[in-house]
Amino acid sequence: MTVRLNTTINGEIVQAEVEPQTLLVQMLRETLGLTGTHVGCDTSQCGACTVHIDGEAVKSCTMLAVQAEGRQVTTIEGLADGDTLHPMQRAFSECHGLQCGFCTPGMIMTGVDILRRIPDASPERIREELEGNLCRCTGYQNIVRAIHSLSTPGGH
Amino acid sequence: MKDETTFGGRLEDRRLVTGRGNYLDDIKLVGELHATFMRSPVAHARIIEVDTEMARSVPGVVAVLTGEDIRHCGYGTIPVLPQENADGSPMFVPPWYPLAIERVRYVGESVALIVAETLAAAETARDCILLDYEDLEVIGHASQEGAPIWDEAPSNQALHHEAGDASAVDSAIASATHVIEVSVASQRLAPAPMETRAVHADWDKKSGKFTLTAGSQGAAALAREVASILGEPEDKVRVVSPDTGGGFGSKTHAYPDYAALLHASKVVGHPIKWTPTRTEAFLTDSHGRDSELSGQLALDAEGRFLGMRVRSTINIGAYHTAFTTFTATRNLFNSLAGVYRFPCLHTDIRCSYTNTNPTAPYRGAGRPEANLILEALVEKAARVTGIDRVELRRRNLVEALEMPYVAANGMTYCSGDFPAVLDRALELASALEFPERRNASEAKGRLRGLGIACYLEIAGVIPFEAFRLDLDEEGLVKLNSGLHANGQGHETVFRGLVADQLGIPIEQTSLPESDSDLVPDGVGSFASRSAMVGSAAAMSACKALIEAVLDRAGTLLQAPKSELSYADGVVEHKGTGQKLTLADVTRQTGAVWVKAHSDIPPSFPNGCHIAEIEIEIETGITRLIDFTAVDDVGNRMNPVLVEGQLHGGIAQGLGQFLIEHVIYDAETAQMLSATFMDYALPRADMLVDFRCDHVDVPSPNNPLGVKGVGEAGTSGSLAAAYNAIMDALSHVGLERFDMPATPPRVWEALRSVGITEKEDLK
Fold first, then answer.
1. Do A92 and B244 touch (CB under 8 A)?
2. Less packed terminus of chain A by CB within 10 Å, N or C?
3. Nearest-angstrom CA–CA distance, A85 and B14
4. Quick check: B739 and B467 in contact, CB under 8 A?
5. What separation, in Å, do the N-terminal and C-terminal C-alpha atoms of chain A show?
6. Residue B614 has what pLDDT?
7. How far apart are CA B478 and CA B472, in angstroms?
8. Residue B477, H or E segment
9. Who contacts B127 (Cβ-Cβ below 8 Å, separation ≥6)?
10. CB B631 within 8 A of CB B646
């Protein structure tokens, strides 16, 4: 049995046939070929699969694809404006906030969400807010620096 | 050498920040089938029967293979670097087959491989396999006595290795004023790269060639190991490595799984994809560390080091990987003298088999252990002798004027200014003012510790690396080597180097996926060697390419080579002024490729790291408060990337200190830490901003004067953090503490010396 699903992904209306148990991340990667969203664990710990649902960061391994019915999904592929990188993508690169790059899509999506909620987040606050995302390469220092470089001054 | 102020990101970043990386699970091959393994649910058992009948009948299943299906294929085992026991006998190397035959020896060992049209079908079939087995006695840790796991190793000893001068150390201890003793465990860790080791296995009927697309730390080395397992000539196995999401040692060597998948591809006539789950990765990706270290340091009345002995017992698991025992024994010995003058050293190391997943080199690979026991001894010596810990170090440091210095372990230190490194670290960490900070913490009822650790390590190790350059008919230069990046930024560094050497724009270069067919004799990215050994090979390849271009230009211009010059991608005839670009040459004469290799001796990165921690008495919560790292990694090819490597290395050392621990049940050897919910990686809020600086002294041993930086951070940070907690705990009378410094362990340690509340500090 499959379910017919209407959703908006990276600004485009998508109609898909998925099995009801399909996770959102599976649909993104396998059905739609959006492989920028990664899977790094089986227990919703690593955050590599983080996407935005109606503008909020969500781990796409914790959601069924059918729950995206009628909602706006943004993945890492949809963050840039054409050839112009999103400021968070540019900040990660310029602050050397990525090494192997596997956690990076999730980190960037989370970083955008942190500053959406807390525009003036301090480095300490950013460290706390990153608790749902694991990185094994960078020691987080340059990830925090990248996100903080876009935070408005005077943070808490 | 790049300036950090002009860093504008790496060449690889654009695709990685836009989701256009090409990792293993992102790839789909035409006609691809899916695979999963049925893995041993028990740690030690004799296999009676693997009943696959029901599994074969699951719709969509194409093949179910067990050890019985491969036992007559003539497959071999993982190639292991040979070593000798202390008594001169050769090290026994047990066979490790693609699928278990007759016996399973650890939880997670591959019992059967299921290939199906969909992953769901493969997983369903896996759960339909009936495994009948007879339990055997389980050996869960290295000091446990019991029945042999391998008949050829009756006491479960894999290797007894000694190095150094035992009698000289005996004499030093006999004549010493002080003999300091320390015991500490370096617990088992999971490398846990964020991308698990997914692969695609593909056998080509026409050529009879096996292709493995896999994350790796060097495609050629992996191809050679896989060929050895399959018993195939090396040119019949190709490894291609696209983007690799971290490795840290665990993706250097071959796993028997890979051979099973390639065999299956041959059987079913289709390419096969396998993506392990995270739990599968915890069970079967090689682990790191797992040693019990005890050391003796002999000092005279003035605190001069007279000699040192380290004994270690290492749990290597049920099988060997290529370098398991070599790095555990030799890297430890080769780094053991650290930055100090020692007349003599001796190591006595026993590697043991247990019913656990095999260990292998993990970031540092013996070097962090060497620095841990050395610096723990030095710190304790200061406490026992009453000599200030900085002064004690200064009295024993090798001076800059003594370079090149031949250490007691035979290593020739190429360069370094150890006293300057120590001074800079103390200054940057405001170490002199530490007593005030300690008083302030204790006034709040918290213990505070400052840990100093100088470190030195051997980097490079294998002098050889191969680099190939392909110049095509458009004048574009493609780079390939035995190296492979797992986050180090090789595209940026090596494309930059080659563009600079050839005098062409960086856009005229590319570094595609690694391909063992192009550089079959390559070695790989481990032991902090890529920048040092790889750069030398790349520079030789650039010279060879220029010579090849000049040869061809000479033919085209009908001029002897001596009348031609090369600069900035252009050949010029000195007499006529005629000019040919690289593309002019290859368009007329065809594409050209060259290959060159390096022969670069090791270098010795060193530094001084200082950690400060605070312990909450009531809860045992131990917080990292401050971290300073002053390193000498020689010349820095790209300072920003060097800093990134240091940050990551420091974090992995601190992860071992704070929270990481692979735990097996003591009786059943079932793994209790097989998810990220049970095996904790350090998170952003557990760490601080590391304060980093350099006292870099170029290495004279390689053309760029670099020293290697991949493992430096881990080697320094582990010992610094350990010394910090011992500084705090010895303050209340505790003599031994084993990591990780999780709240329950610290809480118990405090209570063992009667500290239960804030008031006990007064």
1. no
2. N
3. 9
4. no
5. 50
6. 98
7. 8
8. strand B477-481
9. none
10. yes
Q: Is the dihedral of CA B547, B553, B558, B564 positive or negative?
A: negative
Q: Measured between CB atoms, does A79 come within 8 Å of chain B? A: yes
Rg (CA), chain B: 27
Q: Quote the tokens at residue B717.
A: 């940070």
Rounded distance, CA B510 to CA B530, Å? 17
Provide the phi-psi class of B345: left if phi over 0, else alpha when psi is between -120 and 50, else beta.
beta
Residue B78's pLDDT is what?
A: 84
| Residues of chain A found within 8 Å of residue B23, distances taken between Cβ atoms | 35, 38, 102
Residue B645 near residue B710 (C-beta atoms within 8 A):
yes
Residues constituting chain B: 762
Question: Over the stretch B642-669, which tens digit does the pLDDT of each residue have?
Answer: 999 999 999 999 999 999 999 999 999 9
Spatial distance between the Cα atoms of B19 and B34, rounded to a whole number of angstroms: 24
Spell out which residues of chain B touch residue A123, defining contact as CB-CB under 8 Å: 689
Output the CA–CA distances (angstroms, integers) from residue B493 to B478, B635, B669, B706, B754, in the order listed.
14, 13, 44, 13, 54
Can you point out the beta strands (E) in B331-371? 345-353
- Spell out the long-range contacts of B569-578 with Cβ–Cβ below 8 A and sequence spacing 24 or more: B569/B475, B569/B502, B569/B503, B569/B504, B569/B508
Is residue B373 a contact partner of residue B292, using CB atoms and an 8 Å limit? Answer: no
Low-confidence ranges of chain A (pLDDT < 50): none
pLDDT exceeds cutoff 90 at B109: yes
Among residues B378, B390, B374, B382, which one has the least CA distance to residue B425? B390
Question: Is there a contact between B640 and A96 if contact means CB atoms under 8 Å apart?
Answer: yes
The strand order across the sheet containing B466-471 reads B509-510, B477-481, B466-471, B592-597
Contact, B718 vs B594, CB < 8 A? no
**Buried/exposed B139-163: b ≥16 CB within 10 Å, e otherwise:** bbbbebeeeebbeebeebbbbbbbb
Residue B761: predicted pLDDT: 79
Distance, CA of B636 to CA of B707 (rounded, Å): 9
Residue with tokens 């398991």: B324
Residue found by looking up tokens 């009348």 in the block: B563
DSSP 8-state code for residue B236: G
AA letter at B50? V
Q: Which residues pair with B50 in a beta bridge?
A: B131
User: Nearest to residue B391, comparing CAs of B332, B316, B304?
Assistant: B304
Query: From the DSSP assignment, how many helices (H) and strands (E) are in chain B?
Result: 20, 29
Q: Quick one: which of B608, B600, B597 has its CA closest to B707?
A: B600
Closest CA to B494 of B468, B518, B461, B473: B468
Contact A104 B17 (CB under 8 A): yes
Predicted structure pTM score: 0.97
CA distance A49 to chain B (A): 11
Q: How far apart are CA B402 and CA B394, in angstroms?
A: 14
B405-441 in b/e form (b: 16+ CB < 10 A) is: bebbbebebbbbbbbbbbbbbbebbbbeebeebbeeb
Which amino acid is residue B48, in one-letter code?
Answer: I
Confidence of residue B758 (pLDDT cuts 50, 70, 90): confident
Q: Are B209 and B238 in contact (CB under 8 A)?
A: yes
Give me Rg for the CA atoms of chain A: 16
pLDDT, tens digit (0-9, with 9 covering 90-100), for B541-550? 999 999 999 9
Of B10, B193, B641, the CB nearest to A93: B10
Q: Which residues pair with A51 in a beta bridge?
A: A58
Q: Please give the ipTM for the structure prediction.
A: 0.98
A114 touches chain B (CB under 8 A): no
- Render pLDDT for A19-44 as a digit per residue (tens, 0 to 9): 999 999 999 999 999 999 999 999 99
In three-state secondary structure terms, B499 is helix
Q: How many CB atoms lie within 10 A of CB B587?
A: 15
Helix (H, G, I), strand (E, B) or coil at B497: helix
**What's the CA angle centered on B620, arms B617 and B624, to 5 degrees?**
100
